Amino acid sequence: MSDHNVFVTESTVAGDDAGPLADRTIAIKDNMSTEGVRTTCGSAMLADYVPPYNATVVDRVLDAGATIVGKANMDEFAMGGTTETSAFGPTENPAAPGHVPGGSSGGSAAAVAAGDADLALGSDTGGSVRNPAAFCGVVGIKPTYGLVSRYGIVAYANSLEQVGPLATTVEDAALLLDVIAGPDDHDATTHDRAADSEYAAAADGDVDGLSIGVITDLIEGADDDVVETFEASLDELESQGAEITEVSLDSLEHAVQAYYVIAMSEASSNLARFDGVRYGPEGDREGNWNDSFAAVREEGFGPEVKRRILLGTYALSAGYHDKYYKKAQDARAWVKQDFDEAFEEVDVLASPTMPVTPPALGESLDDPLQLYLMDANTVPVNLANLPAISVPAGDVDGLPVGLQLIGPKFGEETIIRAASAVEE
Ligand code: GLN
Fold this sequence. Notes:
eleven-stranded mixed beta sheet, alpha/beta, binds glutamine, Amidase signature (AS) enzymes, about 15% strand
C-alpha cells in the first residue's frame, strides 16, 4: 500500500470467485458497514465499532467477485471536502503530493489514484464522490437519488446522499455502477429503474449531436485557470460533434446556503444516536443521563461535527424552523425546477467540478465558510437529486481539474457516454 494514509483499516475480504468484478480490488469508504471489519466513519466516536452485517452495496461488490482491500479514510461523518476532519489524520493526494485529496471520500479517490485499489466506493451528499475524483484526477459518479441502496451506510443527510463509484476510467466506474445499482428491499427509497440499464456499455464515446449546456452561474466563481482547462475539455467535445451552448440557472446563487441548512438539520437528527448507549464509548450508566450524553459527545465528536449539530439543531428549533429550514426547502424546490427547465433545452449540463484546484494540506481547515463555498458546483446536483459524473479535464501546473457533466433523472447513460468522449 502507498504511504498517503489512504486506509483507516487495511483488511482483505475476498468476494465470490466469478462475476463482473472478479480479479478487481476495491476500497470501501469507512461509512459503509462491513461485517466483522470496523467501520469508523472517520470518527473517534466509532473507533471500535464493528458492524454485524454488510451494507447492500458491500454485499453486491462481493457477490460480483471483487476483493475488498480496506476501509478508506474520510472526513468525520462525511462532513468536509478535504479529508482533514478525519480523526485518523489527513490523507495525502497521490496525484498532487502535499495537497489534500478532496473529500469527504478522499481515501477512496486516493486509493484509486495511488493504485492501492482498482475501484472504490464513496458516498456523495453534496459532492463527496465528485470533489475527490476531480482533485485526485480520477472518475467519480454521483447516481440519481434512489438508484443505489443506502442500506448500511451511516447516514449524514438522507434526502441528499447516494453511494457512487470511483475508478481510473469511465468504463470501470460505469461497470461498478452496473453492479451496485438497482432496487433493495432494505431501502424504500430505491427505484427499479436501474434494472434494464447497461452503464459500462454506454461508455462508447459517441457525442455526435449531443447538446451540452454550460452553466454560466458555476463559471463565475471559479479560478481563471480552472475555467481555461474546463473550456479546453469542452472544445474537445465540440470537435467530436457535441453542440455547446450556455444556460443560466438563477436559483443556484442560493444553493450552498440551502444545502448547508438542510444537510446540517438532517445531520443533527441522525447523529443523536451516538450517545454511548448503543454507539460510541460507554457513558456513565449509573449517573445522570444528560451529563453522560454530553460527556460522550464532547469526547467522541470533532469540532466540525459539533458545529454542524449545533447549527442544525438551531435551524430546526421552534421559532426558527420557518426562517431557515422551510426557506431552504423552498430554495431546493426552485433549484429542481430550474434544472427541469434547463433539460428541456439541452441533453447534458456542464461545469468545472470544483471551482479551485486542491488546496495544500492544512491550508483550508480554519475557515469553514471558505470550505463550504468550495461546494458551490456540486451541491445543486444533490438538491435536485440528479446524476452527475466528474471526469479528468486536465491540470493546472500539475494540479488536477475535473469536468462535471450533469444529466436529467436516471440519465446516467448519457453522462457516461459524454464523459468517455472526454477521456479519448
Ligand atoms: N463538503 C460537503 C459537506 O461537507 C459535502 C460532503 C458530502 O458529500 N458528504 O457537507
